[in-house]
Design brief:
By secondary structure, the chain is α+β, with helices and mostly antiparallel strands. Helices cover 21% and strands 7% of the residues. The chain is built from five helices and four strands; from the N terminus they run ααβαββαβα. The chain starts with a helix and ends in a 5-residue tail after the last helix.
Length: 221
């Protein structure tokens, strides 16, 4: 009888532990349960990764992501500009174009594998094609820009930490935030939820927004 009760308690603890893990699946470190987990949507076939990646017949012309599977946007974007901006902003780079293939609202989220989908991204996640209202991307962030701007940290010497313990990474701005020396969407957001802070719905940001830390890691005032 005692052994039966112990087995029952152990089973209860196991179920409880699994429940806790499931409840926390949206935490950093895994794409499962994150904003980019599409497995609960009918068009995904219960798969998480298929909207962006495919093991076979992928688009090998896309050099910025492995085994790419999603239709790319061909939009020319309206770019951010400001009288105080010292950087030369260009059209978004390859990694940002991958994000914008859903987030600019011109391509359906379920347009992948050579099919044309009908499910458009939700309004709250739709950045649109006018990037004047968003943080500038597609520009080189180097020591020269930091000097001319006067309000940026030197990306080669300023150290930052991304992610939530124990899943963190520390390095210079250039090493952990930039892509080919450029500021892109992935400089602030981690598409795979590997090095992010906060739970589901927090925007997959790499650094906490509390106290504007996500800003102050690059801006020195």
């Amino acid at each position: 009888m005692r052994q039966s009760k112990l087995r029952g308690r152990a089973a209860g603890w196991l179920v409880g532990g699994i429940g806790m893990l499931a409840a926390h699946a949206g935490w950093a470190g895994t794409i499962t349960g994150s904003a980019h987990d599409f497995s609960a949507l009918n068009w995904s076939g219960g798969r998480i990764c298929v909207a962006c990646h495919a093991p076979h017949k992928s688009d090998t012309s896309v050099a910025d992501a492995p085994l790419w599977n999603h239709t790319l946007s061909t939009t020319a974007y309206s770019l951010y500009s400001s009288a105080t901006l010292k950087a030369a902003v260009s059209q978004p780079g390859g990694t940002s174009k991958l994000c914008l293939s859903c987030h600019d609202g011109t391509i359906a989220v379920d347009s992948f594998g050579g099919t044309t989908g009908t499910t458009m991204i939700t309004a709250g996640s739709n950045i649109g094609t006018d990037l004047k209202k968003s943080h500038p991307i597609g520009f080189t962030y180097d020591s020269a820009l930091a000097t001319s701007n006067g309000s940026l940290h030197d990306p080669l010497t300023k150290s930052v930490t991304i992610g939530t313990a124990p899943q963190t990474k520390t390095g210079t701005i250039s090493a952990v935030l930039l892509f080919g020396g450029k500021m892109e969407c992935g400089s602030c957001h981690d598409v795979h939820n590997t090095f992010t802070v906060g739970g589901k719905g927090s925007g997959l940001v790499k650094v906490t927004q509390a106290g504007s830390k996500i800003c102050l890691d690059c801006h020195n005032k």
